[in-house]
Automatic annotation (TrEMBL):
Stated name of the protein: SDR family oxidoreductase
Matches recorded under Pfam families: NAD_binding_10 (PF13460)
InterPro entries: Ergot_Alk_Oxidoreductase, NAD(P)-bd_dom, NAD(P)-bd_dom_sf
Record lineage: Bacteria, Bacillati, Actinomycetota, Actinomycetes, Kitasatosporales
SUPFAM superfamilies, A to Z: NAD(P)-binding Rossmann-fold domains
NAD(P)-binding domain location: 8-136
Highest taxon of source: Bacteria
Amino acid sequence: MSTILVTGGTGTLGRLVTERLRERGHEVRVLSRRAQPYAVDLREGGTALDTALEGVDTVVHCASSPRGGDEQAAANLIAAARRAGTRHLVYISIVGVDRVPMGYYGAKLAVERLVEESGLGWTVLRATQFHELVTEVLRMLSKPPVMPLPAGVSDQPVEVAEVADRLAELAGGEPAGRVPDLGGPEVRTLESLARAYLAATGRRRVLVRVPLAGKAYRGFRTGGHLAPERAVGKRTFEEYLAGRFGDRGGRA
């Protein structure tokens, strides 16, 4: 089996990718800013990154931050991978990065282009939003008694473990270029997702649909971040909520 480096290997997705790869018999190195022995800030690169990539056949690039720096991190990673003779770079991106004009999405699209032009064998998988992210957004919106929801927006949350399974499969194979998107099993209105979240957490809120302005909102409202033709995920949002919150809603 090959030696595989997982960037962001202590994060929500990277941790699961690491587990899946080890279950498949691969030697896996976990790279993050604090995890020894491969503690590296990709935005800075340096000799520690070269050391982490020595003898690595495949890189699964899960590290990402909405606070910025993804393009520099990817450029440093690609340069080090080329020096190390790495054969395959697998990158996880987001459905809609080319259709929703938002800063973080633009950075993800720019990284996709860096990967494609890297000179390495490459694979890019785009996924819809994880259940965890949708839940966190709803948690923040539900803090006041009145819960505002962007009017006319839907989402297609996907189980992070299913994305990890797919990434591990891709990392064990040959470079495949841009592969089909991975979307959650259902396209749901934000209102229906909010009601499911409130029921699961035992909260009561007044839901208010709020029209917003701007190109990013228009992109979400028109479904640029959705992949209804790739609704291949299995675990629904309600199943995720039941696993996370148990019967908390039933006790309220």
